[in-house]
Every structure is written in C-alpha cells, then in structure tokens.
Design goal:
Layout (H helix, E strand, L loop, with lengths): L6 E3 L2 E4 L1 H10 L7 E5 L5 E9 L4 E9 L5 E8 L3 H13 L2 E7 L16 H15 L6 E5 L2 H8 L8 E5 L5 E2 L8 E5 L7 H10 L2 E4 L7 H12 L1
Parallel strand pairs: 6-7, 6-11, 7-8, 9-11, 9-12, 10-12
Antiparallel strand pairs: 1-2, 2-5, 3-4, 4-5
Helix pairs in contact: 2-3, 2-6
C-alpha cells in the first residue's frame, strides 16, 4: 500500500521501514521484479522495482485500475477485547466493510476503552494491513461510541428505514439471510451477546435478531460467516 508521501516523482516511489522489510524478507523481491501496488483511497496497479537494498526500495508505478467498491454494509460492533481488536479491524477491512461503529454495551469491560489499540494510528495501521491482504485501497470509516443509548436511539435510528437491519445473536430465532440485494446495517454484540435490554433497544428500531446456528463463534469468525452469507 502506497501513501502520497511515498512519491518522489509523479510515477516513482521510495519505500523504507515495514514495507521494505516485507518485500525483501517475506516476498523475496529483487531488482527487476514486479509488485502489485495501490495508493490509499485510490487506484491499484503494478510497480517495477529497479532498486532494493538495506536502505530503501524504489520503483516506477502504473496505477491504472479503479479501486474495489466497499460492501453496502454498516457494521455495528460491540468493542472487542484489545487482543482481538487488531485482527478484527484487519479482517473487516480485508472483506471490504466500509463503515464500522465500535460501541459500548453492558458486557464490554470499561478498561477496553483505555487500550492504545484504539488510537487513530493503531486503527489505521490495522486497516492498512487488511487492505494489503485483500488488494483493496479504500480505508473504512471507523467511529467510536462510548455511550450505547445515545448512539442507538439518536445516531442509528435514521439508518434503519432504508436498510436491512440485522442483529447477530446466539438466540436469534431467524436464520441469517443469504445473498441479499439491499444495503445492510449489521449489529454484532460482545462475547455472550447483547443483554436483553440492549436487544430490545435494537428491536424497537426495527432490527431482526438472526442466528448462524447453535455454535458460539468468535467475533472475527462471526463477521466472516455473516459477510459470506449476506453478500
């Protein structure tokens, strides 16, 4: 993934640090090789490497392909444990989720909101890593909401009338739908699910509680399963 500041000329890029290490040590890139590249928020294409050493990698790039479109989905996610947050953000970005709201709920530990993994820099890096995995370039919009009721009743209420509103819950009475043809707003709770009062708040807005079956899944697994079914 390329940033605007990587360009030393109109079509020439210089990389160092993490990306230099990755292309040298993981990809085994040498002079003359081609790399798939993309610029954050923009096109993808090919980079022709003509210098790679301990200090930097330089290449000429052609960015000719329009970026992949984000999924027509807004994900409402109870804030996961800090150890889970990084891989959840990366996985969501890799699947093309364009909007993510991290929210509070009764079962979310207050200490989670103090984690450095919630910093803008950390969230952006995990999003970048997810996009590099998938070949996307559009960073998801990620918002933090520390208060449950104001978010759901005020900010979210306007979303529901125009979208298919689903709430993933272990005791959902309806099986999650497949191959939907409309925009979706999807809420996924914390470990153990939303408490009854929170479920009722969502349902009063028009959310339908849906299930993926009898097995209890990790949040990142649940997201992948639901995206696979819905789209």
């Amino acid at each position: 993934m390329l940033e605007r500041e990587d360009f030393v000329d109109e079509n020439r890029v210089r990389l160092a640090g993490r990306r230099l290490h990755h292309v040298r040590e993981i990809l085994g890139t040498t002079n003359g090789d081609e790399l798939r590249v993309g610029i954050v928020g923009g096109r993808t294409g090919i980079g022709n490497v003509d210098r790679v050493d301990d200090d930097a990698l330089e290449m000429d790039v052609r960015l000719e392909t329009e970026p992949l479109d984000p999924l027509p989905l807004r994900l409402i996610l109870a804030l996961p444990r800090p150890k889970v947050l990084n891989r959840t953000i990366a996985a969501a970005a890799s699947m093309g989720i364009g909007e993510i709201d991290l929210i509070n709920s009764w079962r979310v530990e207050k200490s989670y909101w103090k984690s450095p993994r919630l910093s803008a820099e950390s969230i952006r890096m995990q999003s970048i890593l997810g996009l590099e995995q998938s070949g996307g370039t559009i960073l998801p919009t990620i918002r933090l909401h520390r208060l449950f009721v104001p978010f759901v009743r005020k900010e979210l209420s306007g979303e529901v009338p125009d979208k298919l509103a689903l709430l993933a819950h272990p005791r959902g009475a309806v099986e999650a739908p497949r191959k939907v043809e409309q925009a979706v707003v999807l809420a996924i709770g914390p470990e153990g699910g939303f408490i009854e009062r929170e479920l009722q708040t969502f349902q009063e807005l028009g959310f339908t509680a849906v299930s993926l079956g009898p097995r209890i899944l990790r949040v990142e697994t649940a997201i992948a399963c639901l995206i696979g079914r819905l789209f």
